[in-house]
Amino acid sequence: MDAKRATEPTRIRVQIQGDSALVRMRMAHEMESGQRKNAAGKLVPAWHIDQVTVQLNGKPVLTADWGPGVSRNPYLQFTLKKAKAGDKLTVGWRDNKGALRSDDQLLV
């Protein structure tokens, strides 16, 4: 896919809780729905994240298909079972214009 890479990293916070981990993340993205009008009265084109993936040590643990109804700079929280310190969490997303973003976080 020929795409421009988004520049601002996904902010990821992880708290190990026994044999699981609480993951919180905020993705920097404008998330335009395509229904808002600009000052000239023209529709602002849709521009939003349409797919989010999360991997733990290279294995997929979450895939989400999103649409234009998700808010700007979306926040996502979930619990990973069997996660431990030293594991590698990889978060990636793609938007409807082809921009890609991938970020890694080591669990501590």
Write the layout of secondary structure elements.
Elements: E1 11-17, E2 20-26, E3 49-56, E4 59-65, E5 75-81, E6 88-95, E7 100-106
Antiparallel strand pairs: 1-2, 2-5, 3-4, 3-6, 6-7
What does this structure look like?
The protein has 108 residues and is mainly β. The protein is built from no helices and seven strands. Strands 4-3-6-7 form a four-stranded antiparallel sheet, with no helix packed on it. A three-stranded antiparallel sheet has the order 1-2-5, with no helix packed on it. The termini are far apart. The mean pLDDT is 93.
The arrangement of helices and strands along the chain is EEEEEEE
Number of E-state strands = 7
Shape: elongated
How far is the first residue's CA from the last residue's CA?
Answer: 33 Å
What is the structure about, briefly put?
By secondary structure, this protein is mainly beta. It has strands at 11-17, 20-26, 49-56, 59-65, 75-81, 88-95, 100-106. The chain is built from no helices and 7 strands.
Any key phrases for this structure?
single chain, 0% helix, mainly beta, 4-stranded antiparallel β-sheet, 108 residues, 3-stranded antiparallel β-sheet, 7 strands
